[in-house]
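> @MW can you paste both from yesterday?
MW: sure, first one:
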Amino acid sequence: MNGVQAVLEFIVYEGTLLALLFYGVALAVTLLQQGIGRKLNDALGRTSLETGAVLAATAGAVTPFCSCSTVPVLSGMLRSRVRFGVCFTFLIASPVINEGVLLVLLRQYSVSTAVVFLLVASMLSVAFGLLVDRAGMARYVRLEAQPDVDGATRIDSATVSRVPWPSRLRFASMAAWGELRASAPYLAVGIAIGALIFGYVPQDAIVALQQRYPGIVLIFVLALVGVPFYVNSTMVVPIALALLEKGLSIGPVTAFLVSSAGTSIPEMIMLSRLFKAPLLVSHVVTIVASATVIGIALEWAAHFL
């Protein structure tokens, strides 16, 4: 497949998939906020930051979202005034505790190696959520008004019991469409850049890096290389198997996949609606650090467990 064909196929397939996924997630988030939004926020408000971060990491682990599709969830959490450290933990955990990586570890290695991945990824998500919260990074959040829904009466958990289901669904659909419409320019630019990277940076170029960088250095380098890539959950397994077959060990492969699943140029462009520059940089640093530590931990586990 030549570069132009790969770019066009990426734009059509991933662009359509991501737009539908983004809309679906935004719709689900709105419906969830209608039903239990206030109760959930009150519950999170009564817990400590530490407990909230653990709950967010657990929720992130069981939600198969890629980096871009966490954005509407994050937007809903921020607008609901959920504490920032809890929001950031979910933002890290959902794509980083990746079901595709877990499947590869279970298939190619062992249950104990998969457990190491889950424990290390979860602990890092919680730790970084606590760190950014206590560092006061919440001051770099942009809180926008909710998208216009043509004057429809807003529905929340205080009024939802009095509203018929069709009206609730109509409002949620309008709100999700407004969220998608507001994010569309960011999404389009991000997908176009992601497609160019996908079409013109072959896997062989990634594999060739192991000739230049030894051991742990390669893990860090591939964590950096993964930052601009967009990898969704359906792409993780085939990419991982292809890289493993070409001779890369599990540490560098996992570092690349965790980094590319945890952040990407499309996601960063979309996050620029919600985060100011210092927080965007902090997010990227957090993902690279997490990918590097996870890669090192799995390299060790693969040899000794």
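MW: second:
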Amino acid sequence: MEKEKFITEQHKKARSFYRILGPVLLFIGAICLIMASIDFFTLQGFEEPKFFWLFFLSLPIIFIGFVLTGFGFGGAIAKYQSREYAPVAKDTFNYLATETTSGVKEISKAIQEGANSTQSLICYKCNGENLIHAKFCSYCGEKLVQICPHCEEVNTADALYCNHCGKSL
């Protein structure tokens, strides 16, 4: 019964008004356009058209009629389209779910393996494996990182140039 509250009497009256006025304006605009076209394309020699101004009148009338018709019949059109598209969307979703299952499993496995692996930093002097955030080697005490004096970004200890700004370290 929520639907009854959403679509009020005023809404129903406006929709009925648009369903009548929109097509009427479309019809009037089309008649004006036809009259202007006949007048323009049946000229003899250098004769001036009498109803050329109807071109300028018909196009806005057709546009307004089209918009009002859309307001009047928009709900019905949307319901029709949803009934047409929903089965296609469902079939597409099911197809994608079926066909991508193995790929999703592989990606999930790779993510889990990446999360479980510990990243390490290798000392350039003794090749010792250290924690990724270590600043000094736990085997030989050598400095593992150096801070750029120009941009203050972290670089490996053996870097000659900053990985961020490119200046000499």
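> thanks! Residues 119-169 form one domain.
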